[in-house]
Amino acid sequence: MTALETRVATTTADTLRLATAGSVDDGKSTLVGRLLHDSKSVLADQLESVTRHGTPDLALLTDGLRAEREQGITIDVAYRYFATPRRRFILADTPGHVQYTRNMVTGASTAELTVILVDARNGVVEQTRRHAAIAALLRVPHVVLAVNKMDLVGYAESVFAAIAEEFTAYATELGVPEVTAIPISALEGDNVVEPSAHMDWYGGPTVLEHLETVPVAHDLAHCQARLPVQYVIRPQSAEHPDYRGYAGQIAAGAFRVGESVTVLPSGRATRIAGIDLLGRSVDVAWTPQSVTLLLEDDIDISRGDLIVPSKDAPPTTQDIEATVCHVADEPLRVGHRVLLKHGTRTVKAIVKDIPSRLTLDDLSPHPHPGQLAANDIGRVKIRTAEPLPVDSYADSRRTGSFLLIDPADGTTLTAGMVGASCTAPEPVRNETTDDGWDL
Amino acid sequence: MTVLTPSPSGLTHSACALSHLDALESEAVHIFREVAGEFENPVILFSGGKDSIVMLHLALKAFTPAPVPFALLHVDTGHNFPEVLDFRDRTVEQHGLRLHVASVQDYIDRGVLKERPDGTRNPLQTLPLTEKIQAERFDAVFGGGRRDEEKARAKERVFSLRDEFSQWDPRRQRPELWNLYNGRHAPGEHVRVFPLSNWTELDVWQYIAREGIELPSIYFAHEREVFRRGGMWLTAGEWGGPKDGETVEKRLVRYRTVGDMSCTGAVDSDADTVEKVIAEIAASRLTERGATRADDKLSEAAMEDRKREGYF
């Protein structure tokens, strides 16, 4: 690990991808607008464009489509960019209503942190529980509970403490690994960027301080390396007559020159002869670097194959059990013939069974719903036409996830997360159903 | 400005993360390779502007030591900066690329398109672009659009499906999860692909500095004859300026964006190196489009409307 550790000393974590969940009523757009504004990421012409009667409406900064401005709601995921001297942020601003669950799932799929807003006057409501459930399902590593509108409850510590306690207990039960609760007023700016002058009783970080310091480094030691092959680079030129490189973005872990690797699904083994990092030769490379691997033996490898360390090869299977979020308008039914995209491989598949649909409030199961409609989250069993090397989503978000696609018109139907259970590693509820799976 | 911060748990847990430029570069390369793996006939929209130059640089790195497996497409408004056209031709020559040109002037000469009263040709680019995509059967079209540019662009996907009229329907976009891009499309449809989606203007310039990428000279401070129109400095020239009542003066300026001469404004600047440009942008209180693009000032939803019709 010496070479790797040397590189670690010179590379650092400086981008955080986060998602916000909450409706306009919770002040989500105001919070995002406040973060952008107070971190000086909103420029004069943007501020002028949302100023009405002399006061900027920060919520308008994030609602980009005509329909959103007309209806005063967020419909689609919007991406925002801001930076502080300590870190750079990519923020997926997602709508909160139940009919936009698919957009929340989309935003959470790449997020390392989710900010869930609640209105201090209302506390934890159905929508809050839904947001927590989605963060748990998508395995977002860090969750921030922003208790907003503290100014409207007299900045009372007891109000905040009760909400924070209720939410943390609930989220922990769902399997959320870490919750940070922060009392704020997005409208007044309390504890968003600057510490509040009204809440001496709160000694924790502001929202921005927390975003700047939460650890985002990938823990390579506990990740098995995975490289989905995207493209075979063969110049066949006078200068490079025999070059044959396997290009891809490392989905998990690290690869080293000399390491024994296996190519799946064929199972053929060889060693890494070299690693090209966009034109530069390196000894070691790690996720999420885009690299080109050169192998010692000339074996048949093409797009869709997965290169893994021989000692950590996942099993291949044609039967996949997963938790899915249905994102298309047309429902998903048992017997549906689909395409399944996993990594860089797309194969034919059939939906064998939909054992349950989950109530988003608490992820409790409703057995045998027959179909999943738009925004439904449920459990499915899928049979694929070819064996796939899938990981559990709990182990690897990149190689444990897949899409179901309509073969007729290419619509993205369903987002899937491989695994026998959908949330906490241990059963946390007693209401286990006859289907033989637990929560 | 982003600076590096030490990762407290880094060494003990063998953890590491990429610098933000490395992460953006890796993501863009992944997108280029996905398109190369899944599409038959992709093309890179290349205007000679900084974003398209960075796109081409990333594509070159993605497939090295093999050549870029895509052609270039330029929509020539007929009002392009000569420095930029010269740069375009040298770039094509240097990398042995194939260049397609869709000409707005051709459409005007044939009477298919009419010159607008305000003289701006930016909105006229959509038809030649769409018809070239159809005629050449391009199935993936890389654009340099960035989500930070404009609020309608902030809602854009990395892979954005267009119908046979190149139309964008923001309410029917495919959800885009993890890094699993869905490029399936019917015959006649194509996919617009935006590898720089997550880059900001500052990222682009920091990357240009880090990689030592050459740009057309108009991006750096130079003396130019300009006149004031609509709150912007437009370059004087045959394209239609100045009109009566507009006076030409010589100023030290540079361009933050490069588009059609009729609607791209210069900014007062003495930034004559990449480093000075980065310092200038970091301190700027205006967005690049707000400062330099007349076409976005037409209405609050000007970009959304043009994108729906098939614009870049």
UniProtKB/TrEMBL annotation, chain A:
The organism sits in which domain of life? Bacteria
The answer, when asked if RNA-binding is one of the entry's keywords, is no
Q: Which UniProt keywords apply?
A: ATP-binding, GTP-binding, Nucleotide-binding, Nucleotidyltransferase, Transferase
Ranges for the Tr-type G domain?
13-221
Transmembrane regions listed in the UniProt entry = none
Q: Which InterPro entries match?
A: CysN_GTP-bd, CysN_II, CysN_NoDQ_III, G_TR_CS, GTP-eEF1A_C, P-loop_NTPase, SO4_adenylTrfase_lsu, T_Tr_GTP-bd_dom
Identify the CDD domains for this entry. Answer: CysN_ATPS, CysN_NodQ_II, CysN_NoDQ_III
Known EC number: 2.7.7.4
What EC class does the entry list?
transferase
**GO molecular-function annotation terms?**
ATP binding; GTP binding; GTPase activity; sulfate adenylyltransferase (ATP) activity
NCBIfam families xref list: CysN
Protein's name according to its UniProt entry: sulfate adenylyltransferase
Query: What is the organism of origin for this protein?
Result: Streptomyces mexicanus
Automatic annotation (TrEMBL), chain B:
Q: Which GO terms describe its molecular function?
A: ATP binding; sulfate adenylyltransferase (ATP) activity
User: EC?
Assistant: 2.7.7.4
User: What is the name of this protein?
Assistant: Sulfate adenylyltransferase subunit 2
Gene name, Swiss-Prot/TrEMBL? cysD
Which portions of the sequence form the region Disordered? 293-312
Which key words tag this protein in UniProt?
ATP-binding, Nucleotide-binding, Nucleotidyltransferase, Transferase
Enumerate the catalysed reactions.
sulfate + ATP + H(+) = adenosine 5'-phosphosulfate + diphosphate
What high-level taxonomic lineage is stated for the organism? Answer: Bacteria, Bacillati, Actinomycetota, Actinomycetes, Kitasatosporales
Q: Which Pfam families match?
A: PAPS_reduct (PF01507)
Which is a GO BP term held by this UniProt record?
A: sulfate assimilation
Query: InterPro entries annotated for this entry?
Result: PAPS_reduct_dom, Rossmann-like_a/b/a_fold, SO4_adenylTrfase_ssu, Sulfate_adenylyltrnsfr_sub2
The Swiss-Prot or TrEMBL record describes its family as follows: Belongs to the PAPS reductase family. CysD subfamily.
Subunit-level organization: Heterodimer composed of CysD, the smaller subunit, and CysN.
Q: What class of enzyme is it?
A: transferase
